[in-house]
Design goal:
Layout: E1 4-10, H1 14-22, H2 24-31, E2 39-42, E3 49-53, E4 59-69, E5 73-78, E6 85-94, E7 97-105, H3 109-136
Antiparallel strand pairs: 1-7, 2-3, 3-4, 4-5, 5-6, 6-7
Length: 140
């Protein structure tokens, strides 16, 4: 089954990208690309549960935190009606820039096709939030 992979260069340090990926209020901002009002519930500890909740409190998806390596790697594993799949956010710092590599899958092609635009919108929002924060804090 296929995997969706996207990479984006971000003009901000890895610390700011990580902050955007793991601060609940900021997660809510970029997760809106998938569904307005979507938010995350987790302890951010490896092996612990993660749930994506809708504005009404319904669970959209749930799984576990598979990897939590500050400023390097965040991975969620899910099991459900779509089968087993993962969302992985890899941060690679190079000089004053940061690359964010996002992978989702494996999923059926139809599911990945439905997620493609949303994922692109989400990583563009992650980029925007991290760059704005870096500029405000004088980090770039």
């Amino acid at each position: 089954m296929p995997i969706l992979t996207r990479s984006l260069e971000i003009d901000a340090p890895a610390t700011e990208v990580w902050r955007v990926l793991t601060t609940p209020d900021l997660v809510r901002e970029w997760a809106a690309a998938y569904q307005d009002g979507l938010f995350i519930r987790t302890s951010w500890r490896e092996g612990e549960p993660v749930a994506w909740k809708t504005a009404s409190g319904d669970t959209r998806s749930e799984g576990r935190v598979a990897a939590f390596k500050p400023e390097r790697l965040l991975k969620f594993d899910y099991a459900g009606d779509r089968g087993d799949f993962s969302d992985t956010f890899e941060i690679v710092a190079k000089e004053n820039r940061t690359w964010l590599n996002v992978t989702t899958g494996p999923l059926a092609q139809s599911d990945l096709d439905a997620l493609e635009r949303q994922t692109e919108d989400a990583i563009r929002e992650i980029k925007s939030l991290a760059e704005e924060s870096a500029q405000i804090h004088g980090l770039r």
